[in-house]
């Protein structure tokens, strides 16, 4: 398979198209979007929990229309193995992908940030600035955003005209908010990044490297916050895999009938 054809490969997971890219291909895909002067490009990440949400939340599912979706986590890898016979080429979760992308982009960029508490937002901005000082990171608003804050944030973004906008409100709120309010004047590239600012600011600890290599960071998070996350992982993960098997059986049945 040529690299060009590989860059176009995707898997539909519960109705959402997820691109299958290596890290290098993903970086170059993002970088190439800056040359399109007339269009805004929005990127998101799909994990098992988000996929489950998309099944019953039409507004969320609609908000993903036209968004470039990257694979996040072991759950979607299992789904791809069931549907396509192999894992995704890379786990491009936002927590790892965005900081690495900032390093990859050697041209100075203005990067606007919305999400988290005010302290988390400012701490994440400072850490990003230390890691990649050639970029300009601008905190715009915390993630507890009402109509008044939205109006203020949009005015700031229109004035700033950032190259990149990072929105960290958690799914499905962040995707719906971007879909409803963010226009090309608010950022050339937009990424919905979940809990990224919490991790970058060290407000929420990452799992040890060995846990991440074994692809069980979800278990580490569950152990840290069992009361908040038990339903997402203990109930949600098996439900997600059951849905994937059901869709494969249903699709195969439909193909054979045709």
Percent of sequence in beta strands: 15-25%
Rg is 18 Å
Termini separation (Å)?
29 Å
Helix content: 40-55%
Mean pLDDT: 91
The main pleated sheet reads as: 6 strands, parallel
Question: What can be said about this structure in brief?
Answer:
It contains 13 helices and 8 strands.
Task: Present the secondary structure layout.
Elements: H1 3-7, E1 10-13, E2 16-19, H2 23-32, E3 41-46, H3 48-56, H4 58-63, E4 68-71, H5 74-84, H6 94-104, E5 110-115, H7 118-131, E6 136-141, H8 147-160, E7 164-168, H9 173-181, E8 189-192, H10 196-200, H11 209-213, H12 217-224, H13 226-257
Parallel strand pairs: 3-4, 3-8, 5-6, 5-7, 7-8
Antiparallel strand pairs: 1-2
């Amino acid at each position: 398979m040529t690299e060009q054809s590989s860059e176009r490969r995707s898997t539909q997971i519960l109705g959402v198209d997820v691109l299958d890219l290596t890290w290098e291909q993903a970086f170059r895909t993002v970088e190439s979007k800056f040359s399109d002067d007339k269009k805004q490009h929005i990127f998101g990440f799909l994990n098992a929990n988000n996929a489950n949400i998309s099944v019953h939340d039409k507004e969320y599912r609609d908000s993903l229309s036209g968004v470039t979706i990257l694979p996040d986590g072991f759950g979607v890898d299992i789904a791809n193995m069931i549907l396509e016979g192999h894992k995704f080429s890379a786990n491009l979760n936002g927590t790892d992908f965005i900081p690495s992308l900032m390093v990859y982009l050697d041209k100075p960029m203005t990067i606007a940030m919305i999400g988290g508490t005010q302290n988390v937002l400012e701490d994440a901005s400072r850490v990003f600035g230390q890691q990649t000082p050639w970029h300009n990171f601008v905190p715009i608003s915390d993630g507890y955003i009402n109509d008044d804050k939205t109006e203020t944030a949009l005015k700031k973004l229109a004035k700033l005209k950032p190259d990149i906008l990072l929105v960290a409100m958690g799914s499905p709120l962040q995707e719906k908010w971007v879909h409803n309010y963010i226009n090309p004047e608010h950022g050339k590239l937009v990424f919905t990044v979940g809990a990224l600012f919490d991790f970058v600011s060290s407000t929420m600890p990452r799992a040890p490297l060995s846990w991440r290599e074994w692809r069980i960071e979800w278990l580490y998070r569950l152990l840290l916050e069992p009361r908040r996350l038990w339903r997402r992982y203990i109930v949600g993960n098996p439900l997600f895999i059951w849905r994937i098997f059901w869709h494969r059986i249903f699709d195969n049945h439909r193909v054979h009938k045709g």
